[in-house]
Amino acid sequence: MQTKVLSIATILGLTAIILGAFGAHALKQVLTPEQLIAFETGVKYQMYHALFLLFVGTTAAVSDKARKFIFNLVVFGVVLFSGSIYVLTTKGLSGIDLKPLGIVTPIGGLLLIVAWFWLFVDLIRKKS
């Protein structure tokens, strides 16, 4: 499981850097300032959670059961949160109205919050 967590963490980090560069250079010409800020928010949260998974995957302070649960929450959370932001902010390029997709953004955010909370719970349990 540790290798899987670390591998996905590196993929999330790698793609966050690529998407950040893409946003800063290519999308800067075609997105509004508000859309660009939203896109950058997706990139930031993706990178934050790549680093979070690196921590979760390398520390002995997290139980294997919690590691697996946190991993799933983060992966689905990033896909829903950051992924929906990427799609919604670039919808003008595709010409497809994806506004109904906006409901998944807060669901993804909630999954990310639960991942952090679950880490807290697991650490408290181990300390007791």
TrEMBL record:
Its main location: membrane. Pfam families: DUF423. Belongs to the UPF0382 family. It comes from Flavobacterium caeni. One of its GO terms (cellular component) is plasma membrane. The chain crosses the membrane at residues 45-62, 69-89, 101-121. The keyword Acetylation does not apply. InterPro entries: DUF423. This is Uncharacterized membrane protein YgdD, TMEM256/DUF423 family. PANTHER family: TRANSMEMBRANE PROTEIN 256. The keyword Transmembrane helix applies. It is found in: Membrane. Keywords: Membrane, Transmembrane, Transmembrane helix. It is a multi-pass membrane protein.
